[in-house]
Design brief:
Number of helices of chain A: 13
Radius of gyration of chain B: 23 Å
Order of helices and strands of chain A: HHHHHHHHHHHHH
Structural class of chain A: mainly alpha
Largest interface: A-B, 54 and 52 residues
Largest sheet of chain B: none
Helix content of chain B: 55-70%
Number of helices of chain B: 12
Strand content of chain B: under 5%
Distance between the termini of chain B: 58 Å
Distance between the termini of chain A: 11 Å
Shape of chain A: globular
Number of strands of chain B: 0
Order of helices and strands of chain B: HHHHHHHHHHHH
Structural class of chain B: mainly alpha
Radius of gyration of chain A: 24 Å
Shape of chain B: elongated
Helix content of chain A: over 70%
Oligomer: heterodimer
Chain lengths: 316, 313
């Protein structure tokens, strides 16, 4: 197991390195000189002022030198400063990451808690009315844009329940109930796509597992139906589902990025968009890297979990 | 000395008999015929939705002659015969704007998937054919792009290029390109190992000939499924980018943009948010249904799920 863990971590580190180079180059190679854009149409800005700005941004010197300055700063917790309000970028990134991670974890929880039972019912009662409702619901869930669902949910709660979630961010450490009431609608909106994926996956794997010999054997030796489904079948059907969760974290971050704006939550999407419109390059760079880091880390965790669930993988 | 001397007949009749190009040409007609059968109603419903959407995009503005940018009524008129979907915040006809949105989404879907398709096929073939350093380099780039959630990458690229529809299409095309590259590369590696490819090479066929005659015909099925699925992804992404203000710019109508302004007036008239959102959902649903149906018919091995989940190696 130890060797497997090390090998997985060993694979994640070069990926992260290559990603950081990719992000570094993307910000620089896309058309438009950062300095020219920052000064806008300001023709009066002298070359000296520009050169000074270049130095402040860490844009002087060769690309390898710039990259080295950037990456070695990150290892010391120094992401540079925002161009807009000179706040340390690390502060901005951490604050927004909190919000988005809470959203993503909540959504993942909802998706699994609702999606898995639906998939099981759909598979066990194959071709029943419940199965068709679940399957059609699954297809609709894959197609409904999260930002539209969020709008509809807001419309529903305000018209029917006469309630609108607070639009100013409440910290979970301040007021956990208020925080939850604020996060529940956006979490539901982004969880529906993942829920549909989980449901379809569980249904497909359950159908496969229910046809296996050991399930028939268990039934034949007199184990009751409920136990066979929950103990023998579901446990094995869930293993492949684990693998998609890592990927879904990425989908959920993407969904969160858009829905945050509707609910006024200061997460990564909200912050990234503001940084993009404000051409705040240090923030864009650091934010993108952190999102990639979270995504790669989530996939690493899933790989490790998969090794625990299915020991055959570790031995390979 | 006749200038029309004919080429000598080939010694081995490989091209005529065992050629997958002709085999592929014969197969899908038979396979696609089963789309029409009752046993695949899912794909049929999806195809119907998409045909309807294409018709609306192409001929909708002829059938409903209101100008999407003209002020034709008061602000926030309710649904009526004159304005079946009401009017928006400055008095433009919502139905005409939804129809224009269908054109926009179809254009974005077609162009960005074309970018991804052409780029993906070229990248995938280079990687699969030359292997070695080219393969490693290209696949590392693909890895980077898979390490960021697609929509986040699209937001960054579209944002840095500058917010307009052309750049949104480029960004979406770039973001979905790796999915095509990966599938093509896998297929090239597989086909290159087949005996008939080796025979073709032994007969003196060059790299491009092998690609065009042997590899491409063999990856038609997965590519078709991929195109269908990623058309829905591209349309959804365009709506999201326009919703965020990074895609189609107002006053031009697009579904995402309409949803974004409609949201502001949701207390006055929910219709402004409901119609464009429903349009996005129906079109995406259509592509998902068609993708599911095609997958069942063309390649059962591709597995049961639609959408964003790449197949793990």
């Amino acid at each position: 197991m130890g060797g497997y863990v090390l090998k997985r971590i060993g694979l994640a580190i070069p990926t992260l390195f290559v990603v950081s180079v990719g992000i570094f180059l993307m910000v620089r190679l896309l058309p438009g000189d950062i300095i020219d854009i920052l000064f806008g149409g300001d023709q009066t800005a002298s070359e000296e002022v520009k050169a000074q700005a270049r130095e402040q941004l860490g844009l002087n010197g060769s690309y390898p030198a710039q990259y080295w300055r950037w990456i070695s700063g990150i290892f010391q917790g120094d992401f540079g400063f925002s161009l807009r309000n000179t706040e340390p970028v690390s502060n901005i990134v951490l604050k927004s990451l909190y919000v988005t991670l809470e959203l993503v974890l909540l959504a993942l929880l909802i998706a699994v808690v609702v999606g898995v039972p639906l998939g099981v019912i759909s598979a066990v009662k194959r071709d029943s009315a419940a199965d068709y409702v679940a399957r059609i619901g699954g297809l609709v869930g894959l197609s409904i844009p999260s930002f539209w669902l969020a709008t509809l949910l807001l419309l529903f709660t305000s018209r029917v329940l006469g309630w609108v979630p607070p639009l100013i961010y409440i910290s979970p450490f301040h007021d956990p109930i208020g925080n939850l009431s604020q996060f529940i609608l956006p979490s539901i909106s982004i969880s529906v796509f993942t829920m549909a994926i989980v449901m379809r996956m569980v249904r497909a794997t359950m159908l496969e597992v229910l046809g296996q010999d050991y399930v028939r054997t268990a039934r034949a030796k007199g184990v009751n139906r409920r136990t066979v489904i929950s103990k023998h079948a579901l446990r094995n059907a869930l293993i492949p589902v684990v693998t998609i969760v890592g990927f879904e974290v990425g989908v959920l971050i993407g969904g969160a990025a858009i829905v945050e704006i509707i609910f006024g939550l200061p997460g990564v999407g909200y912050t990234l968009l503001q940084a993009i419109f404000g051409r705040d390059y240090p923030v864009i760079q650091a934010m993108t890297l952190m999102i990639a880091f979270v995504f790669i880390f989530a996939n690493l965790l899933v790989d490790l979990l998969y090794g625990v669930l299915d020991p055959r993988i570790v031995q390979e | 000395m006749s200038p029309r001397r004919r080429a000598p007949a080939p010694v081995f009749a490989t091209e005529a008999v065992g050629d997958p190009a002709t085999a592929w040409g014969a197969l899908p007609r038979r396979r696609l015929a089963s789309l029409g059968k009752w046993r695949n109603p899912i794909g049929l419903v999806g195809a119907a939705i998409i045909v309807f959407n294409v018709l609306v995009a192409l001929f909708g503005s002829l059938a409903w002659r209101a100008d999407p940018n003209e002020l034709v009524g008061l602000r926030f008129e309710p649904l009526s015969w004159a304005h079946p979907m009401g009017t928006d915040e400055i008095g433009r006809d919502t139905l005409a704007r939804v129809i224009h949105g269908a054109q926009v989404s179809l254009q974005v879907g077609a162009i960005s998937v074309s970018i991804a398709f052409v780029g993906g096929v070229v990248f995938g073939m280079l990687a699969g054919y030359y292997k070695g350093i080219v393969d490693t380099l290209l696949m590392r780039i693909v890895d980077i792009m898979f390490s960021l959630p697609g929509i986040v990458l699209a937001i960054v690229i579209a944002g840095l290029l500058g917010p307009n529809r052309r750049n949104a299409m480029i960004a979406i095309g770039i973001v979905i390109l790796p999915a095509f590259a990966r599938v093509v590369r896998g297929a090239v590696l597989e086909v290159m190992g087949y005996p008939y490819t080796e025979s073709a090479r032994a007969l003196g066929a060059g790299g491009w000939r092998i690609m065009l005659r042997h590899v491409i015909p063999n990856i038609g099925a997965p590519l078709l499924v991929l195109v269908t699925v990623y058309l829905s992804v591209a349309i959804l992404a365009e709506a999201a980018l326009s919703f965020l203000g990074l895609g189609t710019q107002p006053p031009e109508a697009s579904w995402g943009g309409m949803l974004s302004t409609g949201r502001t007036y949701i207390d006055i008239t929910p219709w402004l948010s409901i119609f464009p959102g429903a349009a996005i959902m129906i079109v995406v649903l259509g592509f998902n249904l068609l993708g599911d149906g095609l997958r069942d018919i063309l390649d059962p091995r591709l597995g049961p799920h639609v959408g964003d989940v790449p197949v793990k190696k």
